[in-house]
Amino acid sequence: MTAIDFSAELKEEYKVLFNSCSVNKDKEALVDSAAAKIINNKGRYQSVGEALKIPWYLIAALHNMESSQNFNTHLHNGDPLTGRTFHVPAGRLPNKNPPYTWEESALDALQLRHLDQWNDWSIEGVLYKIEEYNGWGYRLRHPAVKSPYLWSFSNHYTKGKFVRDGLWDENAVSNQCGAAVLLLNLADKGEVNSPVKENLNNTGEPYVKFSNTKIKYGEELQTFLNKFPGISLTVDGAPGTKTSDAFKLVTGYYLKGDGRTG
Q1: Residue 131 in domain
Q2: Tally of domains within the chain
Q3: Where are the beta strands (DSSP E) in the chain?
Q4: Distance separating alpha carbons of residues 85 and 75, to the nearest angstrom
């Protein structure tokens, strides 16, 4: 599949989406439960992350997406560790006979995707590598839908999903917590390092929310929204009614704190 460059524009998009992300109320308990399970197994993620110099929480987020945190399956795709992978990428691990430990499989999966060669572990860099891990199908084929692999269970995703490789269903809804949403929860719990946590205030709420005065990341949000057809906002850093209207046009939701619904 065609690669997507980690451009300045894409970095800005990730930053704005992360800072304006909020968890759907009816999914908060599920997100909390997934995060608590990750924290219980933090040591296993750290052992792999330290070996490759990769943040442990990125590995945990991928593990949640690929196999619901099942340590009896390959990190590559959720196939059982009792044999080589048979889904894409098939035939892993080629230089060792099964069964495998989860750690062996995880090291192979992360190196196969060259994550050990990446060095931008800002939130933008983390989200880029997670979306790349899943593939660029949403961005290339259905750009109006933010990838549920990142944003499911949040205000940035409603519906639309690849129900299997190459098969799109515009009405299907992901039943998994998106990786970015999970990272937000972990950041709020103090379980990630500063490049991610600095994007949150001390209540865990997104910085970018409805306000009639200038706020942090307000200008970045307005600049980002102005890239969409039909939107022309004054970039003053105060995301009031007009900014909230534009945000709804792009995401389907008003800014948090707006008070309007629908």
Answers
A1: yes
A2: 1
A3: 161-164, 167-169
A4: 10
